[in-house]
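Hi there,

I know you've been waiting on this one. I reran it after we fixed the sequence typo, so this is the corrected version. Both the input and the resulting structure follow.
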Amino acid sequence: MKNILFMVVAFAMMTLVGCNEVVNEETSENTSSDSLLAMPYNKIIHRFVLRKQDKSNSMNTYSGIRWFEENNKQYLLWGTRNNVLQASWDGKTASVEKVYNFQAKKGVRASIPNEMVVRKEMRKRVVYVVLNDNDEVVKFEIGSGKILWKKPSGLAPYGVVMANGKLYVSNWSGMVPQKTTTSTAGIPWENATVDRFGTVASGTVSVMNPETGNIIKEIKTGLHPNDIITNPRQSYVFVTNGNDDNISVIDTKTDQITETLSVR
């Protein structure tokens, strides 16, 4: 898991500096790090050790890697246990400039920021970030860290994408069970709908209003919906359903599934 984290962070940084190869190493401190190589010179240009930047078990998560440019400076964002870290890249080194903290809600060990959307709104850079264990989506401002809204999504949200003026959030464990739901089990902090074998039996995509965070619609997908993307025209959203080996195709005009693509 830690190797995946470092490789993804390094890959995101390579898009900033024009590198095209990564070497994963073990340092004398027994701390994994990644080296960025400038090709074709095969030269290490920077080594960035995440554990030195964030003491909160940053190597437990690997999603939420995003980068953006602001005022002719390049920045990298990624999620750790309870934080979103913001680092700047000057062409030679990367350094953490800001840490945005998202406390775990009561009864939960960690908020676990996962995927993010970074965009410019009203001349301000904002981030929409999914908090997996908090079952929430948060919208906050870059720089000030001001939280514009924090709203519940479905259970165990993972991916998020903006399309056709709406947010689409994949929920690993689907909708919150109703009072009449009899078969539930912990996932681990909340109860989810399960089948007779105790396996999670629900997967959804929450369609949310980016201005308010309110849920517009819940779309039932396959089981364990994971990564979610949109096409360039934002007319469709594609979500991978890990436990069903298929992809749900969502029409962003109707917010209905128009096709299910098998990947078996």
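Quick highlight: The chain has two domains: 1-6+33-152, 163-263.

Best,
R. S.
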